[in-house]
Amino acid sequence: MSSIRVLIADDHAVLRAGLRMLIEAQSDMEVVGEAADGLETLSRAGEVESDVVLLDLSMPGPPGTATIERLVRLVPSPRVLVLTMHDDPVYLRTALLAGASGYIVKKAADVELLSAIRVVYHGGTFVNLTRPGEDQRSDEVRHVHRDSPAAGQPKPLSQREVEVLRLLAQGHTNQEAADRLAVSIKTIETHRKRLSDKLGLKSRADLFRFAVEARLL
Amino acid sequence: MSSIRVLIADDHAVLRAGLRMLIEAQSDMEVVGEAADGLETLSRAGEVESDVVLLDLSMPGPPGTATIERLVRLVPSPRVLVLTMHDDPVYLRTALLAGASGYIVKKAADVELLSAIRVVYHGGTFVNLTRPGEDQRSDEVRHVHRDSPAAGQPKPLSQREVEVLRLLAQGHTNQEAADRLAVSIKTIETHRKRLSDKLGLKSRADLFRFAVEARLL
DNA sequence: CCGGGTTGGGGGTTTTTCCCCCATACCCAC
DNA sequence: GTGGGTATGGGGGAAAAACCCCCAACCCGG
């Protein structure tokens, strides 16, 4: 009897508790751990073997895609099922590119979630979006995987730069962002300068628009 | 033997399922209904009597504050416990002003949530925020709340004020907003002052958060 | 070892915000 | 018609924030 070992990674404790009850209520599943951010997810995944990692893309710390990439490089590697509130094909695409095996929105019914866990456990790919489009792109996604530059005009942003960008786009002053990240205002100014150099984002309104397009908000 | 009748209002079905299991597992609580948006919440609340409405502020449809205001006007009126992912005193303030009896973030542990339900059911006010800032403003909120529990709704914004709010929330400076609306910067300053007076939205980050909650962006 | 990222600083200017005061004009309700 | 709320605009000054140049240390990966 091998039940599906699930690791829950979500920053909302209430949701984790709910998911745990839901999963533990299944005869063929068990919860082997919980994590509240990306780093904790990786360390938990290193401590306990799991078959499926139920992962929220939007957690504090490193971007969800980076967490996925590291998870699937583990040995033995768990399958990653992304559980997110973003009903968005762009998110889906980046998640699959990073190595996720499934993508389900939080709006989905619980039976769907359980079904998705079983599908990805058995090696399948589960995708659940209410918004249409991008259907057969999934295949294409596999091929593109990790090699195509995809018109790399904008220089890639570091994680830290993305964090700073997000805070500033949300209307925080340099000082407020510095406090949030527990660094000096000078550091924020430096990051902001780099954002300006790399992407031409000068005013706060520029930062806001870019953040919206990049779906950072 | 009267158990606490809870109505769950959240647009994430998975979370609802989790909450239902969590609550049903308590001997003194029962779930009498679920809703996925503001309108459904109101109709459900009209159909079944409930003691506590567990409400997510960020749902499709009307703003969460409007839903709260209508809920507390029902007879008999349920107590509203806001369950949100926004760990933010500004959100707290608007929720309490709208008539909520409690505010708990989704990051909170499940035992805290259960405790909060019991507190508001017994007529208390439960507030849970991890962020310490904005102290004097919090006091103000509590004061207003004590004086006029459900009455002190935020004054409605004029159309123009909403426009200004939107532009400023998008990161535009006063001058940029003035240019957009073809008015003087002094006019923007005046509107901004009104926003500050009416809703306590002082910093640009405050404006941003409120605009997000009000779905203006 | 070099380059990029992250951190932090000195020291200055310019921009923006914020605060008080004020005014006119419109519309709507009492 | 008088008062209240909204929208518009202003003067002037203090404070805060942003912006600009320079610099430097540390760490890490190729």
Core attributes:
homodimer; 217 residues; alpha/beta; 6-stranded parallel beta sheet; 6 strands; 48% helix; DNA-binding
Structural class estimated from helices and strands of chain A = alpha/beta
DSSP strand tally of chain A: 6
Secondary-structure element order of chain A, N to C: EHEHEHEHEHEHHHHH
Cα-atom radius of gyration of chain A: 19 Å
**Low-pLDDT ranges of chain A:** 131-154
Question: What is the rounded distance between the termini of chain A?
Answer: 44 Å
* Largest beta sheet: strand ordering of chain A: 2-1-3-4-5-6
Fraction of residues in H or I helices of chain A: 40-55%
Largest sheet of chain A: 6 strands, parallel
**Any idea what the shape of chain A is?**
elongated
Number of distinct helices of chain A? 10
Strand content of chain A: 5-15%
Kindly report the average pLDDT value of chain A.
76
What assembly state would you assign to the polypeptide chains in this entry?
A: homodimer
The greatest inter-chain interface is formed by:
A-B, 35 and 35 residues
Explain what you see.
The structure is a homodimer of 217-residue chains. In chain A, 48% of the residues lie in helices and 13% in strands. With 217 residues, chain A is of the alpha/beta class. In chain A, α2 (38-47) packs parallel to α3, α3 (64-71) packs parallel to α4 and α7 packs across α9. The longest helix of chain A is centred in the C-terminal third of the chain and has 15 residues, at 185-199. At the A-B interface, α1 and α10 of A face α1 and α10 of B.
